[in-house]
Amino acid sequence: MAETKPAAKPATSVQVKKSGNAISWLAPLICVIAGFVIWRFVLGSASGFNHPDMSGGFMPEHRDPKGFLSNMYLGGFVVPILIGAFLTMITFVIERILTISKATGTGSNAGFIRKVQYHLANKNVDAALAECDKQKGSVGNVMKAGLYRYKEMITDAELSTEQKVMAIQKEVEEATALELPMLEKNLVFLSTIASVATLLGLFGTVLGMIRSFRKLGDAGGGDAARELSVGISEALYYTALGIGTSALAIIFYNVFTTKIDSITYGIDESGFTLTQSFASLYK
Questions:
Q1: What is the SS3 string spanning the chain?
Q2: Which end of the chain is more exposed for a tag (fewer CB within 10 A), N or C?
Q3: What pLDDT, in 10s, does the model give residues 2-60?
Q4: Which pLDDT does position 225 carry in this prediction?
Q5: What's the pTM value of the predicted model, to 2 decimals?
Q6: Which residues pair with 49 in a beta bridge?
Q7: CA angle 110, 113, 119 (to 5 degrees)
Q8: Could you tell me the maximum CA-CA distance found in the chain, to the nearest angstrom?
Q9: Tell me, what's the pLDDT at 12?
Q10: Conformational region of residue 63, where left means phi above 0, alpha means psi within -120 to 50, and beta covers everything else
């Protein structure tokens, strides 16, 4: 008795994109280290203080800062963490700009879809595929995958029209499932920084206020008021840095999600275009 082999799985035009996401764990670590270097050697440069601690070390106890940046150094260990959060936010903003710009492709999605609709109405699938190559974005990639299946279904004599439409729709869904994760990747870091940066700033402010009131208890007379005002000023640097980082993260997060929604709408419209075109032209 001959051995029966299972039916081969139909080939698909969708290609799995292999891409690592090392940036998601390397970037925060590198940025925090860079934040410490900036805090220690830029903000904490001995030239920025009237009474520097020349012994150096991990956290030199400089006193009497000369300017704004030197004042930030006195904030302590929370400052490099906040600087690291800011650098991490900038890193992921740049990474998302590059990725989403590439996914957007060339020209408008609406114009691209109209051109494809025109070619499909004239039953010129090859011209529609050429438009996808020109678009070079996520919408074009999904449309191209669907068009390959579309072209196969035209010559398929075994399936019904409904089955062919379902096959095209399935191909579009598979291509979409590969494109969307690339668009949304790393956005979680921006949303996390938007929340955590403010809390870190408030945490640093509270620590600064604690130090200020402790100094107030140790000092006396006019020196007490001076120590308190200087301490409060130092503590508010935390809040400013935290709120500034959080505000930028929120703004860019909203910009990116709006852009992704636009691309997603174009992908959905491209799938609808393919199925409706095939159903009307090849009954």
A1: CCCCCCCCCCCCCCCCCCCCCCHHHHHHHHHHHHHHHHHHHHHCCHHHEEECCCCCCCCCCCEEECCHHHHHHCCCCHHHHHHHHHHHHHHHHHHHHHHHHHHHCCCCHHHHHHHHHHHHHCCCHHHHHHHHHHHCCHHHHHHHHHHHHHHHHHHCCCCCHHHHHHHHHHHHHHHHHHHHHHHHCCHHHHHHHHHHHHHHHHHHHHHHHHHHHHHHHHCCCHHHHHHHHHHHHHHHHHHHHHHHHHHHHHHHHHHHHHHHHHHHHHHHHHHHHHHHHHHHHCC
A2: N
A3: 444 433 434 444 444 544 566 678 889 999 999 999 998 998 888 888 888 877 677 78
A4: 65
A5: 0.82
A6: 65
A7: 145
A8: 105
A9: 47
A10: beta
- pLDDT number for residue 134: 93
Residue 275: both structure tokens together: 């199925």
